[in-house]
Design a protein that fits this description.
The chain is α/β, with parallel strands linked by helices. It has 18 helices and 18 strands. The strands form three sheets. It has an eight-stranded mixed β-barrel with strand order 11-12-13-14-15-16-17-18, surrounded by six helices. A five-stranded antiparallel sheet has the order 2-1-5-4-3, sandwiched between helices. Strands 6, 7, 8, 9 and 10 form a five-stranded antiparallel sheet that branches.
Length: about 525
């Protein structure tokens, strides 16, 4: 008689593990800080090394460099909501493999999170992973972790007889591919528009002459005549802290994006970030004078209640007045330079003063002023602002404060005191660019705020992208949980406005409702 062999029933844990691997190639667990505590699956096949070699590393190391800031946003959502819906990413392997990442809070809590990684078709659905321009974010991350001393950006500019030469979209995409390939696995390339491109190699400095030859070959194949300018922008910046260096980098990229190599040199970056340092004192003196003389104006853009399209308040947007010899006539450069040379408080105070003058002259419109994190954490700035509002209580009913993420807040305790003091005087507070970086999620946890403004990158893609709609929906849930209302910026179509309202967004801002201009009633 043949004996029947009875195999022991698999445990519940074994079943779950089997089901997980049936749907994914790699399983990862992280702690509350996003560091990997468990890693199993096809790591050797994808990365050429075992999963255990990732233990203790940030989850972002598994993801392509240009998407790491977006992963920071996704992890903040996971922390806040306990879930990441399937999200298309690219791995940091040599092939930049297309994968879907999903995650849940581990049973029992304790700040542990379980994530699955499953392969996708080569073309990623759903638009770009949110988190800001990949090249700038990747370079800033390199500087923050101290890897910028030997690195450099490669910058390419196409020009013709009439100035900037902007290639067709298909050629621009091929140029980006060539730049990425030249930089090696993990390199990040960007198209700044108007025939200007950049690349951050995976390591070391780019050979800009080789880049120029490869781009020239592409242009010849497409029958596009023109000249190719190149520059290597060293990231080493002796004399600046890592935080100041990232601000200087933003200033440099803004200048190059706007005016190419000429604007970059005019802004003081002909010798890289270190070259800017040598001229920073003179530039700070010129900027201080510009601020003191208020050589700027404010343009006001309406924020409307989506239910009836009536203006609720107006955001005051900085518009520098072009001055002969001044290297900064764009708002982004103006602000970045102020943050880099320590003049944020002076600039914010001048903007607040100008906005107050506009509020006094207008009939009933509430004005939103942007405040840098550097000003928000300053006791002196808080005292000055609160003293002014105490002397003129009516102003508190005419102003609103938006906390920007251009400069990260380091002294959270002082910033909290400022937020509480302003709200105590009747000023509503809004977190700007929510979702553009991980800092905004931290601000939502530590500050009591009245509004949250969703970054426009989500709104732009939301009609076509289920992933972006999922991000917005999660952010609406987060804001609602802390008693804040949601504003969506960069709304340009009726379809976007309708979608935002259906997702629970209360307020909208964008060209659909009005371009920046004069404040009504002045």
């Amino acid at each position: 008689m043949q004996e029947t062999v009875r195999h022991p029933a698999p445990s519940a844990a074994d079943r779950f593990l089997t089901f997980a691997f049936a749907a994914a190639e790699m399983l990862v667990e992280t702690d509350a800080d996003g560091r990997i505590t468990f890693a199993e699956g096809a790591f050797p096949a994808r990365f050429g090394r075992p999963g255990r070699s990732f233990l203790g590393q940030p989850l972002q190391t598994m993801v392509a460099r240009d998407q790491r800031s977006g992963i920071g946003t996704a992890l903040e959502l996971l922390t806040a909501t306990g879930r990441i819906r399937p999200t298309a990413i690219r791995l940091s392997d040599a092939a930049r493999s297309a994968f879907s990442m999903a995650g849940l809070a581990a049973p029992g809590g304790h700040g542990r999170y379980c994530l699955t990684f499953a392969p996708l078709p080569a073309e990623l659905p759903g638009g770009p992973l949110p988190g800001g321009p990949g090249l700038a974010r990747a370079a800033e991350e390199m500087l923050r972790v101290g890897e910028g001393a030997t690195g450099a950006l490669g910058l390419i500019e196409l020009t013709g007889d009439g100035g900037a030469l902007a290639p067709r979209a298909d050629l621009a995409a091929r140029i980006q591919d060539v730049l990425s390939s030249h930089g090696g696995a993990g390199a990040v390339a960007a198209d700044f528009g108007s025939g200007r491109f950049g690349v951050l190699p995976a390591e070391g400095r780019p050979d800009v002459h080789v880049l120029a030859d490869q781009v020239a070959l592409l242009m010849a194949q497409h029958g596009l005549p023109g000249r190719i300018g190149t520059r290597s922008l060293p990231l080493e910046a002796g004399g600046l802290s890592p935080l100041q260096t990232t601000r200087a980098l933003r200033f440099a990229l803004s200048a190059f994006s706007r005016g190419g190599d000429a604007a970059l040199a005019k802004a003081g970056f002909a010798g890289g970030l270190a070259g800017f340092v040598s001229s920073a004192s003179d530039r700070a003196t010129a900027l201080r004078r510009t601020i003191a003389e208020r050589r700027f104006r404010l343009a006001f853009q309406p924020i409307v209640l989506l239910a009836d399209r009536r203006p609720h308040h107006y955001e005051a947007l900085l518009r520098p007045i072009a001055t002969p010899g001044s290297p900064y006539d764009q708002a982004s450069e103006f602000i970045a330079l102020a943050e880099t040379v320590g003049l944020s408080e002076a600039l914010d105070w001048a903007v607040v003063g100008t906005a107050c003058d506009a509020a006094r002259a207008a009939s009933g419109a509430r004005i939103a002023c942007n405040l840098s994190g550097l000003s928000l954490q300053s006791p002196a700035f808080r005292h000055q602002l609160c003293t002014m509002l105490d002397a003129d209580p009516a102003l508190a009913r005419r102003l609103l404060v938006e906390i920007t993420e251009t400069a990260e807040i380091e002294d959270e305790a002082e910033a909290c005191r400022t937020v509480d003091a302003l709200r105590g005087l009747g000023l509503p507070v809004c977190i700007d660019d929510f979702g553009a970086g991980a800092a905004a999620f931290r601000y939502l946890r530590i500050f009591r705020v009245d509004f949250v403004k969703v970054d426009g990158i989500y709104v732009t893609h939301a009609v076509e992208s289920g992933r972006d709609r999922g991000f917005i929906s999660a952010m609406v849930d987060l804001a609602t949980a802390v008693g804040a209302q949601v504003v969506a910026e960069r709304i340009e179509t009726e379809a976007q406005a309708t979608l935002m309202q259906n997702l629970g967004v209360a307020f909208g801002q964008g060209f659909l409702f009005g371009r920046p201009g004069a404040l009504p009633g002045r």
